[in-house]
Amino acid sequence: MKKKIERVIPQPAAPGMVGDGFRVYNYIPGADVSQQRISPFLLLDFNAEVDFPPSETLRGVGVHPHRGFETVTIAYKGSVAHHDSAGNSGTIHPGDVQWMTAGAGILHKEYHDKEYAKKGGPFEMVQLWVNLPKKHKLTPPHYQALTAGQMSIIDLPGDQGSIKVIAGEYNGVTGPAKTYTPVIVADLKLKKGATTATSLPANYNTAILVINGSATVNGQLAAENSFVLFSNEGDEISITAEEDAVLLLLSGEPIDEPIVSYGPFVMNTQSEIVESIRDFQSGKYGVLK
Description:
Blueprint: E1 5-9, E2 16-18, E3 22-28, E4 41-52, E5 60-66, E6 69-77, E7 80-84, E8 89-92, E9 97-101, E10 106-112, H1 114-119, E11 121-131, E12 142-146, E13 152-155, E14 161-167, E15 169-170, E16 173-174, E17 183-190, E18 195-199, E19 205-212, E20 215-217, E21 220-222, E22 227-230, E23 236-241, E24 245-252, E25 260-262, E26 265-267, H2 270-281
């Protein structure tokens, strides 16, 4: 049975800036998609392609804390550097993914890579927050640098495109990301006329972001930069590219626990939020300059 489409959400009316380096459209929770409805996904910011001029100043987001979830940055165009208070650092380039588990608490900063900043040019990224279940919220923070070469790739017949599996399993192929709750994250690059189909558990919360181009998803047209939200009925998804297209598939088993969010902290109770803020203020997340 085909997964029923609950609604196709168009690109939000206007982008917002995250720091001075990320010009994003917010789909979760800004497009009336609540964190509970799309659990375990908490936030989806899409930096649709934009050209940044050359700069000696590194644009981005300065030092800030996180606790209780994971941040995932998927690079399509441009390059982003990362530093955190657990001692991790690195740069992701097109095709790479940065998967940071904030867990018990971490400070980090993200900014345009120095070489990219010098040249400027097209910049396109997705930032995703994935919740942690209560039993793992205070896990020690750590970082996965997933390069394009580490990704699991499914090549479609007839050179019609490819599917990059980042996390979970797509048609029997498993991605390299290690996760704390069952999720599927897959990047689909399809040539015009290409078709792919998969089956996902009916109870998983599932959505597709159309990064570029347009596609027909289970018989319904999804325009560029639209967000296809599926209901929890049926399990089959069929996608046909109406033009060359790039799509991001997100699917995950809901975490049936309370969600209490306050800025960069996501916990289960208000008292845990208060404790998270106090721990941050007292320096328990480490030091980062």
